[in-house]
DNA sequence: TCTGGGGTCCTAGGACCC
DNA sequence: TCTGGGGTCCTAGGACCC
């Protein structure tokens, strides 16, 4: 079996770079990337966290995920831009379009990451390293933002390589380079080692990826179960999942959740929020022609405690009203009256149902189906806010909450890589 | 003006069945 | 006398990713 050549393409500070490139293109003279700046939500509606930061902002020790309040206290002159998700999606797709010219085997891994299988494409494009530079520079010149490209023989090592020095760089991380390039790194920089795992490893004095690689995997197994074996393999560069081209991986579930602009403390209001979440979830369900057999609600209280409650339902459904009724039931069973800052609805156990089975004991949802269909058509034609239930008037709540339907959904994090 | 939103996978414990 | 044991399904919570 011949060795694979895999590229991992990672947009540098994606949201921030995209916004910066857009502003320059609009005639703005300031490049956000050259000053301390972040993309972040609106603190007034309690969405105030850093989504992406410029390299100068990083010098102030500003971190992704921290509050804007805290970021501003570190750097009072910080420039804050609002996220423009439509722009982000367009930039993401434009990058994918360029990559497709080089290989048919590309996989979108997230909004700002792609894997490209370059195996046996060197006859076409020459030396992989040269090709990577070519791609990187083309993206910079044509799209106005920079990427890092990592090159190796599997996805894990390619991804680790793209994390090396930024921005606008190409790095390799082949097996023989692992001790020199990867083992000195702190443990938390290994893919799949998050906060909880790094805490456990540090308490056992495992500080670097090299330390992890040289730990007896049986010890890891006892403390971290199968995850311990996974990261031990990763520390040795062992990983062999294929680059999945094009077509979507089967989606397992879909959900919408939102942090509310104010604490919700009445049942009626909570039910209204649930409806606004169910409206988008069920519309996505219908758009992708799925039915769900499991409904889950979750919330986070004012004290930041999280709860969830789920139930399998007797027959698959995509009906707004039906899912809403179940969500309300679940909510009522779970909620003890705490003030709520965040609420979510998620459906899963999806199936394609070409025919609808109606049990004798279920109520007839045929009328609801017709209404759902009609509303979907109106919203598609005139926008998602063109029609809403009157109960939202003066409620201070949005009638639909959550992401818009993406024209072209990409497969999200599938099993690990 | 403190702390997003979208996912997937794993684990533990209980119910239930044979 | 004592307290099987394996399998599956369901649920809640936690871990990780971007």
From TrEMBL:
It catalyses: DNA(n) + a 2'-deoxyribonucleoside 5'-triphosphate = DNA(n+1) + diphosphate. The keyword Ribosomal protein does not apply. The keyword Glycoprotein does not apply. Keywords: Cytoplasm, DNA damage, DNA repair, DNA replication, DNA-binding, DNA-directed DNA polymerase, Magnesium, Metal-binding, Mutator protein, Nucleotidyltransferase, Transferase. InterPro entries: DNA/RNA_pol_sf, DNA_pol_Y-fam_lit_finger_sf, DNA_pol_Y-fam_little_finger, DNA_polymerase-Y, DNApol_IV, Rev_trsase/Diguanyl_cyclase, UmuC. It comes from the Bacteria. Binds 2 magnesium ions per subunit. Its EC number is 2.7.7.7. It holds the Pfam family IMS. Residues 6-194 form the UmuC domain. GO terms for cellular component: cytosol. The record marks 15 as: Substrate discrimination. The active site is at residue 113. Coiled coil: none annotated. It is an enzyme of class 2 (transferase). Monomer. Poorly processive, error-prone DNA polymerase involved in untargeted mutagenesis. Copies undamaged DNA at stalled replication forks, which arise in vivo from mismatched or misaligned primer ends. These misaligned primers can be extended by PolIV. Exhibits no 3'-5' exonuclease (proofreading) activity. May be involved in translesional synthesis, in conjunction with the beta clamp from PolIII. This is DNA polymerase IV.
